[in-house]
């Protein structure tokens, strides 16, 4: 049992290191594919907060706090019902309850 745990820990550590290395290699590949270092390269999302004012930039478009509030009010007025979202939520709850009851049955 002790050797199994040691082997499992070593494999998990190797997989974690592999994921981090893969992410670094992907980042370097993207930089090489672009072909040059661009100091003006912007992130996809940037958030600037000054006092009570909140400014966000999403893919180069400026979004203010007032825009977000207006969109939120518009969504609340629509009262949209998403059929697929509700079905997914029900399926998730059902699978959670079924797995919990199965685990309780096996554990007893």
Characterize the structure shown.
It comes from Neobacillus rhizophilus. Pfam families: DUF3679. This is DUF3679 domain-containing protein. The protein has 108 residues and is of the alpha+beta class. The protein has a domain at 1-40. The chain contains 3 helices and 3 strands, in the order αβββαα. The chain has helices at residues 2-34, 65-78, 83-107, and strands at residues 45-50, 53-58, 61-64. Strands 1-2-3 form a 3-stranded antiparallel beta sheet. β1 and β2 (53-58) form a beta hairpin. The protein is flat and about 55 Å long. The two termini are 23 Å apart. The model has no long low-confidence stretch (mean pLDDT 80).
In short:
The chain has 108 residues and is an alpha+beta fold. It is 67% helix and 15% strand. The protein has a three-stranded antiparallel β-sheet with strand order 1-2-3.
Order of helices and strands: HEEEHH
Supply the number of helical segments.
3
DSSP helix fraction: 55-70%
Summarize the main sheet: 3 strands, antiparallel
Biggest sheet: strand arrangement: 1-2-3
How widely separated are the two ends? 23 Å
Strand content: 5-15%
Category by helix and strand content: alpha+beta
Radius of gyration: 24 Å
Overall mean pLDDT stands at 80
Q: Compute the number of strand runs.
A: 3
What is the molecular shape?
flat
Q: Would you identify the regions where 5 or more consecutive residues have pLDDT less than 50?
A: none
List keywords for this structure.
Uncharacterised_YqxA, three-stranded antiparallel beta sheet, 108 residues, alpha+beta, DUF3679 domain-containing protein, 67% helix, single chain
